[in-house]
């Protein structure tokens, strides 16, 4: 059990160290992603509205 937790912690650290994808424009609608959103999320590829739509659809089609 402790070994599994240690592996999960290690994987989280690796994932956190990887650079996030950064895009100036939303990959769905093409609108400019505000710099404040980029900084708040640590890098993203969708604007807030498209991200919300993606999450909404994901809940219904799993």
What does the model show?
The chain has three helices and no strands. By secondary structure, the chain is an all-alpha fold. The chain starts with a helix and ends with a helix. The mean pLDDT is 83.
Class by SSE composition: mainly alpha
Gross geometry: flat
Distance between termini? 29 Å
Overall strand count: 0
Largest sheet features: none
Whole-angstrom Rg: 15 Å
Strand content: under 5%
Number of helices: 3
| Uncertain stretches of 5 or more adjacent residues | none
Amount of helix: 55-70%
- Give the rounded overall mean pLDDT: 83
Helix-strand pattern:
HHH
Secondary structure: elements and pairs:
Layout: H1 2-17, H2 35-41, H3 48-60
Short synopsis of the structure:
The protein is mainly alpha-helical. It has three helices and no strands.
Task: Provide key terms for this protein.
3 helices; flat
């Amino acid at each position: 059990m402790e070994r599994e937790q240690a592996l999960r912690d290690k994987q989280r650290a690796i994932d956190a160290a990887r650079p996030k994808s950064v895009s100036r424009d939303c990959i769905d609608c093409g609108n400019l992603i505000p710099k404040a959103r980029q900084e708040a999320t640590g890098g993203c590829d969708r604007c807030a509205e498209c991200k919300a739509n993606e999450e909404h659809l994901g809940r219904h089609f799993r």
